[in-house]
From TrEMBL:
InterPro entries: Gfo/Idh/MocA-like_OxRdtase_N, Gfo/Idh/MocA_Oxidoreductases, GFO_IDH_MocA-like_dom, NAD(P)-bd_dom_sf. Residues 1-90 form the Gfo/Idh/MocA-like oxidoreductase N-terminal domain. Residues 127-223 form the GFO/IDH/MocA-like oxidoreductase domain. GO terms for molecular function: nucleotide binding. It holds the Pfam family GFO_IDH_MocA. SUPFAM superfamilies: Glyceraldehyde-3-phosphate dehydrogenase-like, C-terminal domain, NAD(P)-binding Rossmann-fold domains. It comes from Thiothrix nivea (strain ATCC 35100 / DSM 5205 / JP2). This is Oxidoreductase family protein.
Length: 305
């Protein structure tokens, strides 16, 4: 199996590391302006020869480049598998018909806690979901000044709404797609960035669940918390502490234990499902990714972004 990896920043290198562990992948070529010893590289996507010879394409470039690169690939190849990092785009676009299988990199769907929650919620009527995700942007990447990162730059597709759209995806995956939303998106902290560092929203899903979601870039105390209420139980998840508690209406509690994930476990599971599993149980499809983009677009329009 032959792979073309587009983009070789931190996330591109991570995908490269993961794919190198699959015995069925014989070679991975890379589109990057970097000079990489002992690797086949191309300075631009248009310079890749014999594009049809690749079996799997990964778009891991800056978000603002995704749309152009995906459309270009779709014109050049057909019947292939194309993976695109999240978020799909930096804003809403009307896509032409796709000639390939497109998958989006919402890797948290492969977190054991979220998969357990998905199973427990099957057949349940969800009443409310409260989600909070916060971290401190300057501590994200130790090898780069946060002010120089794309996350800090609105024009490059940075900002908490796009960076932390994982939360929008797994919320929709667990309790339904947002049909109504009221949102606040802004830069409120003293971080030296021009992108948004806070998103707060309340919404109603197509399954009638009410969602309250807050995401930020400025919390020194990192957290990723989920609380979901049904008519029969409450689920409380802490994705950083790796904890899940189910509290039943009679007061009884079930505490689920999970082994601490290794760095690449979720990425390996995601790529394995795309490449080798005929039944796609968890991976985000193009349609689902576009639905998240519609939610992002609604939030951007409400806040004149």
């Amino acid at each position: 199996m032959k792979v073309l990896l587009i983009g070789y920043g931190s996330i591109g290198r991570r995908h490269d590391e993961v794919l190198s562990s699959f015995a069925k992948i014989n070679e991975t070529h890379i589109v990057t302006k970097q000079t990489l010893a002992d690797r086949v590289t191309f300075s631009a996507l248009e310079n890749v020869g014999n594009i049809q010879s690749y079996d799997y394409f990964l778009i891991a470039s800056e978000t603002k480049k995704h749309y152009e690169q995906l459309c270009w690939l779709n014109e050049q190849v057909s019947g292939k598998k194309i993976f695109c990092e999240k978020p799909l785009f930096e804003k809403h676009y009307d896509l032409p018909p796709m000639n390939n299988q497109i998958y989006i990199g919402y890797v948290l769907r492969f977190h054991p806690i979220l998969q357990k929650m998905k199973s427990l919620l099957d057949g349940q009527e969800v009443l409310t979901a409260n989600i909070a995700c916060g971290s401190y942007l300057p501590s994200w990447r130790t090898n780069i000044d946060y002010r120089d990162s794309y996350s800090a730059k609105k024009a490059e597709g940075g900002g908490v709404l796009l960076d932390l759209s994982h939360e929008l995806d797994y919320a929709a995956w667990l309790v339904g797609s947002l049909q109504e939303v009221k949102s606040y998106q802004a830069k409120v902290s003293d971080l030296e960035i021009d992108s948004d560092d806070l998103v707060s929203l309340v919404g109603k899903t197509d399954q009638k669940a009410i969602i309250n979601l807050v995401m930020d870039y400025f919390s020194p105390s990192a957290h990723r918390l989920i609380r979901i209420n049904t008519n029969t139980f409450t689920l409380e998840a802490d994705l950083i502490k790796n904890e899940l508690i189910q509290t039943h209406v009679n007061g009884e509690k079930d505490v689920f234990a999970f082994q601490r994930l290794q760095r690449n476990d979720m990425f390996q599971a995601m790529h394995h499902e795309i490449l080798f599993n005929e039944q796609k149980n968890f991976v985000c499809t193009l349609g689902q990714g576009l639905s998240i983009m519609q939610t992002i677009n609604t939030i951007q329009e409400q806040n004149n972004e």
